[in-house]
Design goal:
16% strand
Amino acid sequence: MNTLSVKDIAVAGKRVLMRVDFNVPLTADGQVSDDTRIVAALPTIRYLVENKAKLILMSHLGRPRGQINPALSLAPVAEHLQGLLQTKVSFVPDCVGPVAEAAVAELGEGEVLLLENLRFYAEEEQNDAVFAKQLAALGDVYVNDAFGTAHRAHASTEGVTHYLQPAVCGFLLEKEIKFLGNALENPERPFVAILGGAKVSDKIAVVKNLLGKVDHLLIGGGMANTFLAAQGKSVGKSLVEEDRIPLAQELLELAVEKGVGIHLPVDAVVAPALSATSGQVVPIDEVPVDSMILDIGPATRQQFATVLAMAKLIVWNGPMGVFEQAAFAAGTQSIAEAVAKVDAVSIVGGGDSAAAIAQAGLADSITHISTGGGASLEFLEGKQLPGIVALSQRK
């Protein structure tokens, strides 16, 4: 990608309209309980403040579905951001219209304003042109630093760029493009991808795209069951997408054709139900008919770690089992440790994989942890993300 960056434009004295991803969890009393996404945007915010921009931040929070919902107001986020920045952050209880326009007009150089939840308007997700134009009227230049929403063509990510130029990326978005883009276009080898999660259907396009690029593909989690079934193995009561078995067979054949090593579990931790508090380890050929696979077993962990040890580039998306439950977290934990140990460029997709890395306390050992689960997945599928495509390109 040859996208213009915030460093490529003059910002002093200008109204900079910036899309951030402050879709963070709040406690029952309205406090921010995890500020990872806010912290990720701080380098761009600080750069703009230090360079005397009049900074207008906009974000969504939760799914208010076009209705005003006080429980999903961004007011507590403004307060939290103020604490992190150690500088005043004003908040305005609307994102378009006279109230927002008046607040922007009063903004001085180096000052920060956070608009109210964009999704209080249904027009945001509809990418409504009139709404996008109203947002654009608040700024002189546009910055997108919200990778987590870059795969959505919404008014604040795509629509606004039709009315406000230049439209550039912030440091966070630039970093995402760099790491994920290089992984797909110019990978260091051996390139090993790890895919997990519940369903093959969620990752079909990713598997297809990666089979043309990786040297090894490690598959765990619920999605591995469908591949195991495609190999004729019995997986008991495990989740299997029956209608995807022929496709899994095709993908296994395609891997052989392309000389890609596909690695599936050789043993598993099984239990009679998801609610079980413990499981037993069995070889993959001996899964009891009344049990389900809930994690990869010790032999698989060892085999996967051996493949990872030789990697120069690792991309990981999706857990190896039901890692939210202590009894079935060891497989995902072991992969996190193996990835952290390797002297390689390691890229972890957002969502559950990022949570597993954080849970293991290994975030500092990973080269890049993506801030967008869905967006990183679509990037790995080879899709063009609307929020990135809409930005100004270098001549």
